[in-house]
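> Could you send the Leucyl/cystinyl aminopeptidase prediction when you get a chance?

Sure thing. Input:
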Amino acid sequence: MDLFDSNSSERASLPRNMIENSMFEEEPDVVDLAKDSTAFPTFPALDPDEVTYEPRSSRLLVRGLGENDMDDDEEDCESSARLLGMSFMNRSSAHRSNSSPYTRQAPPRSCSRPSSRTIVVCVLFLVIVASVTMVFYFLPGCTFTKAGCRKPNKTNPMEPVYPISTNGDLFPWAQLRLPQSIKPLSYDLTLNPDLDKMTFTGRTVINMSILHSTNRIVFHGANINITKATFKLGDGQASDVTVLEYKPRQQLAVNFSEELKAGQYCVLTMEYSANFSNAYDGFYNSSYIDEDGNKRVLAATQFEPLSARKAFPCFDEPAFKATFLIKISRKKTYMTLSNMPKAKSTNLSNGLVQDEFEKTSINMSTYLVAFIVADFTPNTKNVSETQVSVYSVPEKNGHTEYALTITSKLLEFYNNFFDINYPLKKLDLVAIPDFLAGAMENWGLITFRETTLLVGKKSSLLEKQVVASVIAHELAHQWFGNLVTMRWWNDLWLNEGFATYMEYMSLQEVSPDLETGNLFLSVRFRALDKDALNSSHAVSTDVNTTEQVEEMFDSVSYEKGASILLMLNASFPGDQQFRKGIIEYLKQFSGLNTDTDDLWNSLTQVLSTHHMNVSQMMTSWTSQKGFPLVTVNLMGNQVTLTQEHFLLTSDNTTHTSSLWNIPVTYVNDSCSLAPECRQVFTLKNKSDTFKLSKNVTWLKLNYKNTGFYIVDYGKDGWSVLTQALISNVGVLTHEDRASLIHNIFALSRLGRVPFRQVLNLLKYVSADTETSPVTEALLQLNNIYRQLEKRQESNLASRMKNFIMIKFRNLMANQTWEEEENVSKQELRSALLEMACSLNDENCIQQATSLFKKYMQSNGSLRIPGDLQQTVFTVAGQSDETWDALFNIYAHATYDSEKRKMLKGLASTQNPQRLVQILLSGLSGSLIQTQELPLVISTMCQSFAGCLFAWDFIQENWDRLIEKFPIGSFAIQTIIKSVTFQSSTQVQAFFSGLKERGSQMRSVQEALETIKLNQRWMDRNLPTLRRWL
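Output:
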């Protein structure tokens, strides 16, 4: 019986992995290759752009023929057998496990001796078979063309391997990335969605230019049924063509008997039908319940990174930019939106209306195309000759005012900062009820979750900070990503790193009251934590599979990308040099695609008079994973700096000899707070020495943590800094104090600093009242507490809880439960009270319970302060009585930010039946939207009991999860990272069995590493914790 069946009751009190430990294996597939054999196909001629080849030994992949991998000889033998139509069901038992259920019994040895004639015939037959086998063994060295057999490549004996399309014909392309023979110039798209049947039909006309001669056109399409296709070359007549499909790579192709010549123009027209996507990508359906209780249906798009192909056939890679003319039919009760303003509407004979949008005024990548069919209402104003509108469902239109106001300010700021005006006539921001990502930067039609766009008039500044940050990020993309686009997904950071950096920088200028500095500092710390793992990757790295494309959307591309830009800006001479370099980059490559070197070259040009080679400096930060550990040794006025790779590894991984070009900033005891105190030394070598102008007592490196590196001061250096903070907490900026706390915990995980040294630094923390150092200390101590709890070290966990409460009791007691206007104080209060209540502090629990009861009795008219809502709702989720009340409020709530906090409170319960109820509801999308499942699972995994249920749920429902969330996507990454409480054996056993369903994900390796590192740290430090606590 499935534990997560809604009818399950007897076993719901304990998760399956605590009830039964037996493991079951599926029987392997048995493949009869004889049924899959084909006639010998003629390989098509290669285009000049076809440069990637596969080894001959990769021609045949057979699943289910045994546990052992085939060696080259075996595989070639089996390839030959396949070509001869032979079945390989009878593989030698020597290659099978002795216990295999497929091992055949040897026949009785009772054969009579064969005659001479039989022997001769058998030998002759074997010679013939061997000869034919050898012919086909060596055959792949030659690809037949009209010109005959090409001269073999003796230096690289590879062959192109073409897959088989769905109709059995040879598919003319064998690579993930498309050939460069054809360039799309424009698309004419006509879409006819049917929101009653959840289907749509379409017509796509692609105008193309032939860049070099070819006899094929290869492009993308997924889950669409092409019913008719025609092709026209130049001014010739259109003729029907056959469209081939290769589903594993979501590619389509058209073959031509005569070569298409370079310089010609052509048109491919396709008619097709499809179902709406049942996930959150492509052209998908969504719904919401209106104020009268009626279900309203709508359709929206999410194409980044690889899903435009699910809505229309296209060249779905960032470098294939084109213009788009879009027409969409609809019922009269609906409205439509797309990237451009509406040009006209036409009444159709079937009673529908067709909306036609203006042709895009500039070329753009397919992943930025967007369209929506819904009944939304706008809030609009004109800003700098651009019509800005914020759309929502009608009931929530009153929550759009803040988004409209902050968007207007940011648009004017970016127009000025980039010295390039936003290029389109309109800018729409749309809140979608069902939306997986936080937001999507579609050019002219930015889509959002409701929680990241809509805020009420009484919302706290902390809630507005969330909305403003997301809007600032997406608006920055209109220049970084839309106007100038990375050439391929390996350089995604050029989009996301820049947008993340500009998000924080712009709001510090436009809305300083939101105090985004603390938030930016925190995300830089978390980026360091991830990049310290061996499973991390370079900022710019190879991307060769669709899963790898999805996995590029992570903290390395976003937060590390932003962090190295901050470091670069801080190292530039003057305030405006970095901005000048950005403007140069945007203007030089406007409308084009770039790679990382293009950015560095633009910045180097601007700084040529300063003799600063940005490319030489920054390549070390983007081309290799990880970051440096800088060790400092201070002797009087002489400073010695040494760098090495900061690598947390749970095995015997060899540490790299990587070097970084590091702009090391530092302050000292005589001048440590003001920006003018900061000095810079560039560390390019493994070790280097410089002298100060005078003797100093201490140095603090990485001023305000603007550099992406960690610092070890040595035993004496840490002691001196600790004493300085104990004597005067204000001797360093709050960023520098937070940096010391983060760095020393990281060094403890590395094993470079004993944990007692960490405890010594924490002696000063009781005197600190600033948000960033206090919240960083709380986070680090809470991590240790949770690890002790999950390790079932209950006695030590209890002592750790007492230590945290003693260390922060005074600060916790000083927090009020009324409205607080200052963002930084809201952040501090939220962190302190969430911690106090999670550790079952009696006063905190009492205050939160009282506030929730008042909230219930007021029927929602009483508003809980935004920064306290999570604490109050989490406490309410711990009691059966208040859980039921909270669930009822959640079911009828309309304010999305508040509703999400309620969901986290519900998911924090320890009641097994309710945990199962939430998970099942999220999976079905009934009362809890499926888009919230990653949030639910990560919240559950903050407690030991919740983790067990979540892990069991993930294993039971993995296939359903990856139907909703693409393999490698951020949602799947979040789910995987949540299970790091488990043993590495359990996690590895489960994910390794998934094969193509997720076994190779980087996030799996990250989870395994984290588990082992946590275990190693605990093993090493438990004695110290026992003595100390």
